[in-house]
Design a protein that fits this description.
Layout: E1 4-10, H1 13-17, E2 24-32, E3 38-46, H2 54-76, H3 82-102, E4 114-119, E5 123-129, E6 133-138, E7 141-144, E8 170-175, E9 180-184, H4 189-192, E10 193-194, E11 199-200, H5 202-214, H6 223-231, H7 234-237, E12 244-250
Antiparallel strand pairs: 1-12, 2-3, 3-4, 4-5, 5-8, 6-7, 6-9, 9-12, 10-11
Helix pairs in contact: 2-3
């Protein structure tokens, strides 16, 4: 199995005006088990705009989650299940709480959302806390894995540091062959999704997937920079002023 992967996180115009760093973080690549079976792992985390250390929280969440998933894959050679996901999330929460304690801050100061996909040839595991979304494509049909969890109030969501975070953890494991996958933070939700039909907006994704299909795997490295320029373009910034992260993967 070969995957082509591009990813980018760019600061929103509202944060540029406040001289604030991008609070999004992402990671996507292939993790190989001892059995040589390859697992695509893609992670997106969005630090809360109201959190003092939101950027650090999202970065630490991605790093800790990747370590936990990699350990499971290397030790057991499998994609993981619901019990594994709960263990991974608890590892991330513990890392955030420990970091807060070391710096004499609260866990809420590191609040962030978390989205993750772990995919093999014939199986996919998805889980998420908070908003943002994952979109999968199979046989030219696009679908949303979980609709963004926007919380009880407008412009709110749930974070991995919340006391009730585990109550808002959504997990889905399916036996299927995924042709393409996208993960994105909430800064792109209104461009990438149709809120009327609660479906993905294919014209947002398809031009980028088409470009990736036309490239050899070895020729995709410069597409990260092109994707960042696109996310920071006037066409995007006139429609959203938030930080923006997009991970695109095709088989």
């Amino acid at each position: 199995m070969t995957w082509k992967v591009i990813r980018a996180s760019v600061v929103g115009t509202s944060h540029q005006g406040n001289n604030t760093v991008c609070q999004d973080c992402c990671w996507a690549d292939v993790v190989e088990a001892k059995s040589n079976k390859k697992h695509l792992v893609a992670i997106v985390s969005d630090g809360a705009g109201s959190a003092l250390k939101g950027a650090e929280g999202s970065e630490l969440s991605c790093e800790t989650l990747l370590q936990a998933i990699t350990k499971t894959i290397e030790q057991h050679g499998k994609i993981g299940d619901e019990a594994d996901v709960i263990g991974w999330i608890n590892n991330v929460r513990q890392a955030l709480f420990s970091q807060a304690e070391r710096n004499q801050l609260t866990a809420r100061d590191y609040a962030c959302t978390l989205l993750c996909a772990v995919v093999t040839d014939d199986t996919a595991l998805f889980f998420q806390i908070g908003d943002g979304a994952m979109v999968v494509a199979k046989d030219n049909i696009f679908g949303v894995v979980f609709w963004p969890d926007s919380g009880e109030y407008a412009n709110s969501t749930y974070f991995i540091t919340d006391d009730a975070a585990m109550n808002h953890l959504r997990i889905s494991k399916t036996s299927t062959t995924i042709k393409a996958l996208a993960l994105f933070s909430d800064g792109l939700q209104h461009l990438a999704l149709s809120y009327v039909t609660k479906t993905p907006h294919p014209p947002f994704f398809e031009p980028m997937f088409k470009m990736m299909r036309q490239r050899k795997t070895s020729d995709c490295d410069d597409l990260d920079e092109q994707l960042a320029r696109f996310l920071n373009s006037d066409a995007i910034n006139t429609r959203t002023d938030d930080d923006k992260t997009l991970v695109l993967v095709i088989r």
